[in-house]
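A favour, since you know our C-alpha cells better than I do. Go ahead and set the record down below.
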Amino acid sequence: MLIVSGYIHIEPACLPQFMADIKLLAQRVRKGEGNLSYDAAVDDPVTGSVLISERWQNQEALTAHLAATHTRAFIARWEGRMTGEVLKYDAFNERGLLDV
C-alpha cells in the first residue's frame, strides 16, 4: 500500500472554491480501481492550509490516478495557485492502531 500525505497551501480567499473542486475530484477518485481512501481537509483557513491524505493499493493505481483526465484537469486549474509538500510513503505492515 502507498500512503500520500502532506499539506497544500492556497490563497485563503480561494479556499472555498479549491475545496469545492477537490470534493468533486475526490468523489470520482474514490470510485477508481486501487483507491483505498482520498481525503482533503482544511487545516487552517486563515493561512489556506489543506491536509491531503490518500491511500492507494499500489503504484500502478496511483500512476493511473495521476494520469487520469480529471486529475490532470484539476492540477491544471490550480497549478501556480497552490504550493506545499505532499509525499508518498510505502506501507508494508498495516495493523490496528492498538496492535503491537
